[in-house]
Amino acid sequence: MHQGLWTIPTAELLSRTASAEPTPGGGSIAAMSGALGVGLMQMAVAITADPELEGLDARLGDVQARIVPAADADVADFESVMSAYRRPRSDETERQERSQAIEAATISATESPLRLVAALVDALDLSHDIQPAVKQAVVSDVIAGRDIVTGAAWAAIRTVDINVAQLQRSDSARAPELQRTRDEFARRLQEAS
Length: 193
Known about the structure:
The longest helix is centred in the middle third of the chain and has 39 residues, at about 90-130. The protein is mostly helical. The chain has seven helices and no strands. Helix 2 (about 25-50) runs antiparallel to helix 6 (about 140-170). It starts with 9 loop residues before the first helix and ends with a helix.
């Protein structure tokens, strides 16, 4: 049974990330890093304590709520893909069922980081609204948060890339659509960072 990444001590998270274990991997760490980057933006808003920023604060909270679950979702997606690869393949029916299971799991493991990138790009857009509105002493935290979120979004795109490549090799009908979505998010990411 997988223990949620948000519940383990930071030192253990670092140790597990640096180990030969496949999870947490790039997608999980992208989500956790991105959530921390958004946290810096939230901190800047909280320190500024301006009632006029309540709307931005609420929007940041909504984005954060979309990012946090992505860390454990990445682990679950990986486990689903590996489970699909372990399916039996002794006859043509089993091989076909295995292939379909791999494709379905890989599509899910591509859609999840795309949702993460969407949330991270929204956080980047918000950072540009927040930066001029917070106290000067915490502007650097907003910028640092933006930098971390940008890196996290690109890391999530790397997860998408590996999965789209697999779908392309297996001639999945979903591969072109997922590639287009990835490319659109990459374009938006470049504009927002």
